[in-house]
Design a protein that fits this description.
It is a single chain. By secondary structure, the protein is of the alpha/beta class. It has eleven helices and 17 strands. It folds into two domains: 215 residues, Rossmann fold (3-Layer(aba) Sandwich), CATH 3.40.50; 122 residues, Rossmann fold. The chain has a seven-stranded parallel β-sheet, with helices on both faces. Strands 14-13-15-16-17 form a five-stranded parallel β-sheet. Strand 16, helix 10 and strand 17 form a beta-alpha-beta unit. Helix 3 packs across helix 4 and helix 7 runs parallel beside helix 11. The longest helix is centred in the C-terminal third of the chain and has 18 residues. The termini are far apart. The relative contact order is 0.12.
């Protein structure tokens, strides 16, 4: 192995995903990233590799293969059983220096946000945080801009041979979308927001065929400055927006009677077996906790049904819900932008419309 040089771009190849597991369970974001990484690897004509750290986690390698990984680099050690910044940063950095992937993806979880920047600094490369969209192929990137921006993409000259990873993320508090590239160093590194990438279907044949590589773990007690003494799980009621089939979100339109508006949303969500979401305005005003927020600066959701109550539909909110299968909007402003992306729109006062919706759904369920 030659001397590691992050600016020697030609020496780097393949797409890697850091596959985060906690106590032997793979995190959903890692499977989303493996699915997205498969697309990037196919566009580049290279292999997709998962990087899996832990102790006694070999069984998870097949799961990664089933979602698209060609290879899994498995680093196992008792010192990697629980996540610590020192241990994981060393092993991940050593792995990148040894095998030199051109793209390295992390989930924007608490662990990913702690680990990725430390590795980027050690590897002397750039990191784009909290991405919501990734592209390699320029034509696909231009199509993305055509659909999601106001830029004159057809009047712009593009370098169609550019193969840099194009990493798109919210900027200026979510008011703009910025696309970042890392043309001078490798790997191009990104953390990706949970829920924004769609998980592909599991392929049992791929799972059986995945190649597992077990490099030697060069890690000792002297490398660790912290030790996990105990893991205490706190039970707290959190809303699972990203996994919900139905999301009923409320916006500034409930301001005339906040308590009643939230109550109606909760009742409608309960009837439909869903959860309650919120716009940024609702969270900023303290009407609902931050874990309810949908949008560029909140969570990205892909439910079967998304119901927007009193939400005007600013571009920042649309970015978090526009890929829902069916969108229903209730707003008394006929010109609200939300109606442009809604499959069904009701122009009316939510305090009058929602009770009727609740009764109608209850009647349908009673007669089912």
């Amino acid at each position: 192995m030659g001397t590691y040089n992050s600016s020697d771009i030609a020496a780097f190849k393949n797409v890697w995903v850091f596959c985060e597991q906690r106590q032997g369970t793979m995190m959903p974001t890692s499977l989303e990233l493996i699915s997205e990484g498969r697309k990037l690897a196919d566009e580049l004509g290279v292999e997709l590799c998962g990087l899996l750290l832990g102790d006694g986690v070999e069984a998870l390698a097949g799961e990664l293969g089933g979602y698209g990984a060609d290879k899994v680099y498995l680093y196992e050690s008792p010192l990697l059983k629980d996540y610590t910044t020192d241990a994981y940063a060393k092993v991940v950095s050593d792995a990148v220096q040894a095998y030199r992937p051109e793209i390295m993806l992390f989930g924007a979880s608490n662990i990913g946000r702690d680990l990725a920047p430390r590795c980027a600094a050690r590897l002397h490369t750039g990191l784009c945080a909290d991405c919501t969209h990734l592209d390699v192929d320029v034509a696909k990137y231009v199509d993305f801009l055509r659909e999601s921006s106001t830029l004159d993409v057809d009047g712009t000259s593009w370098d169609m041979d550019n193969r840099d990873l194009k990493m798109t993320r919210p900027a200026f508090g979510g008011h703009l979308m910025a696309t970042i590239i890392c043309p001078r160093f490798r790997p191009a590194m990104a953390t990706v927001r949970p829920g924004v990438m769609k998980k592909s279907a599991f392929d049992a044949a791929r799972a059986a065929a995945v190649e597992v590589i077990r490099p030697q773990v060069e890690l000792g007690e002297a490398d660790l400055h912290t030790r996990v003494r105990e893991i205490v799980k706190e039970t707290r009621k959190l809303v699972d927006l990203t996994g919900a089939e139905v999301v009923v979100s409320v916006g500034r339109g409930i301001s005339s009677n906040i308590e009643k508006g939230i109550q109606l949303a909760e009742e409608l969500a309960e009837v439909l077996g869903g959860v309650v979401g919120a716009s940024r305005a609702v969270v900023d005003n303290g009407w609902l906790p931050a874990d309810h927020q949908v949008g560029q600066t909140g969570k990205t959701v892909h439910p079967r049904i998304y119901i927007a109550l009193g939400i005007s539909g600013a571009i920042q909110h649309q970015a978090g819900m526009q890929d829902s299968e069916h969108i229903v909007a209730v707003n008394k402003n006929a010109g609200a932008p939300i109606f442009q992306v809604a499959d069904y729109g009701i122009c009316g006062d939510l305090f009058q419309v929602v009770p009727e919706m609740i009764q109608s759904f209850k009647a349908v369920k009673a007669n089912a």
